[in-house]
Amino acid sequence: MKVLLSSIIFICIFLLSSSARAHWMLVKDESSLSFVSTKNEHISEIQQFTSLKGEFNPEGELQIEIDLASIDSGIKIRDTRMREKLFLVDKFPSANLTAQLPESVLRLAKGNSILLTLPAELNIMGISKTISTTIQVTRKADNGIVATSTRPILISATDFGLTSGIEILQKLAGLSGIGLTVPVNFNLVFVAH
Question: What is residue 193's predicted lDDT score, i.e. its pLDDT?
Fold first, then answer.
């Protein structure tokens, strides 16, 4: 009986520590990042980036790479213009986000969730700003982790040097205006490796 109990305790400790030591990779096909843009004051449209890469290590160092060329607005000419005139993807192919995950996320038990506010560093076009994200992190039964924004993150074009690109897009499309702030939402799925 004592040997059985010792074995169970050892297995539990091993499983908990192996989860904490895991290297977590983003599952591209199950993850999403979208935003809402507004033109002519009252017309809002949902757009997304279809190519994301990401990971976090056992120390909780999170890195997300957003392929800016993967912009998908549902209109090909607009996507091309955004790549070339707004994001300048030839010079700045990606936006990057880094953050330090707290221990509570790294040790989250299967089937449990935690709500937290996480500061993160966002770099777009070589300009870095600290942003605040409110997310729900859920540890799935299959050893996956899902991180979902519970409030939109407001990203200002002014903060990241995007206003001149927006002005160009506005002129090309013959619009009276394009909003300079967009709410961003995400759902990121990670699996342990």
Answer: 87
